[in-house]
Amino acid sequence: MIYKSDIEIAQSVKPENILDIAKKAGIDEKYIIRYGNYKAKVDLKFLKESGAKDGKLILVTAITPTPAGEGKTTTTIGLADALRRTGRKAVVAMREPSLGPVFGIKGGAAGGGMAQVIPMEDINLHFTGDFHAISAANNLLAAMIDNHIYQGNSLNIDPRRITWKRAVDMNDRQLRYVVDGLGGKANGVPREDGYDITVASEIMAVLCLATSISDLKERIARIIVGYTYDGLPVTAADLKAQGAMTALLKDALNPNLVQTLEKTPAFVHGGPFANIAHGCNSVTATKVALKTADYVVTEAGFGADLGAEKFLDIKCRLAGLKPDAVVIVATVRALKMHGGLNKNQLDSEDLAALERGLPNLLRHVKNIKEVYKLPSVVAINRFPSDTENELNTVIKRCRELGVNAVLSTVWADGGAGGIDLAEETVRLCSEKNEFTYCYESEQSIKEKINSVAVKIYGGDGVIFTSDAEKQIENLEKLGFGKLPVCIAKTQYSFSDDMTLLGAPEGFKITVRSVRVSAGAGFIVALTGNIMTMPGLPKVPAAEKIDVDENGKITGLF
Hints:
By secondary structure, the protein is of the alpha/beta class. It has 19 helices and 25 strands. The strands form six sheets. Strands 1, 2, 3, 4, 5, 6, 14, 15, 16, 17, 18 and 19 form a twelve-stranded mixed β-sheet that branches. β12 (224-228) and β13 (233-235) form a beta hairpin. The longest helix is centred in the N-terminal third of the chain and has 21 residues, at 130-150.
């Protein structure tokens, strides 16, 4: 049977009861908090009480994204399905989609074709309410800040130096810069304000890096919301907000359990963006997954210069994780776009454009191999328009770097299309690796940012604006100099200029602002014109989403 869309494929498959999926993962029913028949949360007591040995951790990342698509999430899911088809006990661990991209340009983030997680509609929409809880906790803190100022401001908070924004899980450019507290004394204190999209909120990062309720509360307490007139930081603890915020988040901290189309257990939890946050699923979900399988397939957001770098330098460092292998997803079509072709020119063979675009893939491969010293494989997500000459060119160039490239057809064939990829990944997991970070904690903030810019991006260094210089000096005086760095930049280029495709050289990135996410435990460096509140495109995906009188949703893809 031929299906027209991902959602039709997903709706054609009858899911197994979530208790049966939990049983496959070796999770006793007493740890399962059901949300209906097909989704559940896993009580974190399982992590404390499980005596199982951790499985192997496989990271899936990708080349620099293009409008042609790479299929990173699809490959992640298909690889887990393929591992189970070969008799291995495997699970998948990935992020929850944000409503902003779902209704904006992407239309969903649950995989595609025959490699999806289900129930697809629930996962892409409200799911188990995690994002709503994060938004509520974020906005409670915002309300307590402004109420404190209104009620007399005993903490001496400078309204001009409040750094905490409100959050909503929607692309809404109208909310980037607002003035609130208008309408007279009874309605608050007027000040300039703004909104972040929920996935860019520090609460999202905190939830994804916390390991327990007590750890969550301690991290929330450390969050800096602004500064006093004397330049001293003001925290959530100063406002006595951490208890109530943690109460809102206690259920959201538990990882979500669903399944793939092939009934592979899937932990889908947390969803920070990789271009403006650290871009990885939750530590709790990853650690629970490692107790349930011999192989855990997880993904990091966007290209390897963003998602993988932050997974390795932030998440692995803070959570004590060590990957066993890395899969780098690429398509011939995307590489030809990096070689200068337009999206409407990709269906014909063009070896010259492919050769021009290949350095993008090769730089990502080299980074994983030489900077992080991890074994890797390139997964070529095959399209019908790809020619044998093009595919062989990619395979040959990868082998010149000592890395195998394997064809994958999981979109069309599900797990059956990823068997070769699964076998190569298992082989890599059996190898010893000398995993190392891009930079050391003892380096200064500037040195860390420069290390990423030079070693990972391939640039010549960093330009710091005068504002960034002052902010770095202040953060180091406050004792935050040893934290890892989270560089926010465009996902479309190794540089901070989205028009520089391929593997640009001779550039410097410009850091215009630096701030601390003290609760999450990292420094955020903003580059280029990156924003923490996206806007909707000219034709939003929301225009195509509908629901009939029986509650059946259409238009998600």
